Structures are given as structure tokens and as C-alpha cells.
Amino acid sequence: MDKEKVRITDEALHLLIKSYCRESGVRNLQKHIEKIFRKSAYKIVKGEVADHVVVDENNLTDFVGKPVFAHDRMYDLTPPGVVMGLAWTSMGGSVLYIESIIRSSSASGKDAKGSIHLTGKLGDVMKESAQIAYSYALGFLNRLDSSSEVLKKSEIHIHVPEGATPKDGPSAGCTVVTALLSLALDTPVVKDLAMTGEVSLTGKVLPVGGIKEKIIAAKRVGVSKV
Fold first, then answer.
1. A Gene Ontology MF term for this entry (predicted)?
2. How far is Cα 175 from Cα 127, in angstroms, rounded to an integer?
3. Residue 142 is part of a domain; what is its CATH number?
4. Which residue has the higher pLDDT, 111 or 173?
5. 78: number of Cβ within 10 Å
6. Chain mean pLDDT for the chain
7. 0.85 cut: is pTM over it?
8. Scanning 17, 100, 189, 213, which has its CA 20 to 30 A from the CA of 85?
């Protein structure tokens, strides 16, 4: 078929890349463009359209189906206890949120102890990272305000959304620390902030991989500070 009979607008091409083809390379993008041309040829042969097809962001799904990747941004403004993190996957970078709430408060007294409950299909390394983050946040808050008992005597529930997707690795450590302190101080983090980095027990932020892909993911959702 003559390529001049099919025109894909720039907006449709950007949407195709953003919502269907995030992996490195252009092989999958090429397959989707070929699919658009095949369906366009079919429509022309069947007489469903004239001899010229324009594919834009409004009719793209008619040619390639529903988007594979949904919008990554769950919150326009994160409430206290919620912080955006960055992750690396086989499909490139992505954003994830660390959510924390106070599930219950322990009875007052010397024997009252705080704890954390983790959900979101987390691997062992990420669970250990969250425990380290909790220990550091507890000590940091004690130095900042020794009278605060939010972390000392409360059961904190930490969740990473998209519970059906396995998650692992240490790079959410600093994000968990920030989420816990945000919750304890009842103060949201600044707008358009995303974080990544392993945290040590003494509060050192250690290097992590996949920075290029993570920065691309942050830019994709409009983050201005990493």
C-alpha cells in the first residue's frame, strides 16, 4: 500500500510511544506502526473509509487496541505519608508510590511499641529496606522531637500500590523514610518530587541503578525534582 494513503499525526505517534512502547529500542514501535498500516489497508479495501486514512490520538485505539500502560501519576498532590518513588523494570523506568497510614495506636506506657505492616507484594530485600527505613526514621524523629510518639507507639501500615505486581530491591529506602516522617509530622512533601536511593541504618543514601530510565519516567509524569 502506498504510504501516502496513511498519515499518523505527531500527537498519535507520541501517544503510541508513551502508552504502548516503553521498552528500549524501536522494534515494538515498528510492529505497532505496521499494525496501523495493515488495519488501514483493510479499512480501505472494505470500503469503510475513503482512500486516505488519518490516525490521530482520538482514533488510535481503533488500530492498536487499548493502551498497555496507564497513566503513572496517582496523585496530583500527595497527602502526608505519601511519597512518589522511582523504579526500574524490564520495560524501563516507572514511578511508584509509597503510602503510609496510622492503622492503630498502642496503649500508652513504657511497654507500648510501634510496628510496621507491609503490603504490595514486596520481596525480601524491599521488606528489609523498609525495616531499615523505619528504624532510621524512628531515630531521626526522636532527635527532631523527642516528645513525638507517632512512630514509637503506633502500628504503621506501609503499602506500595499495584499489589498484583511483584516489587523488590533496596532503592525505595529513602522514599520510605520520607513517607514515614511526612506521616509523623503531618506534613506533605513538596509538589512534583520523586525519590530513589537505598538508605543505610545510619541514614546514608547509597547509589542505585537504572538512573537514566528512572529520570525518563519522572519526566514523563511531570516531576521537576528528583
1. ATP binding
2. 13
3. 3.30.230.10
4. 173
5. 21
6. 87
7. no
8. 17
CB burial class (10 A; 0-12, 13-18, 19+) of residue 100? buried
180: enclosing H helix or E strand: helix 173-185
Q: What is the CA radius of gyration of the chain?
A: 23
On whether both 126 and 186 belong to a single domain, the answer is yes
- As for how many domains the chain has, the answer is 2
Q: Tell me which residue range forms the domain holding 26.
A: 3-64
Residue 12 in any domain: the answer is yes
Active-site residues: which are they? Answer: 171, 214
pLDDT over 60 at 16, yes or no: yes
Looking only at the bridges linking them, the beta strands covering 115-119 and 205-206 are unpaired
Q: Which CATH number goes with the domain that contains 50?
A: 1.10.8.60
* Per-residue confidence band for 111, with pLDDT thresholds at 50, 70 and 90: low
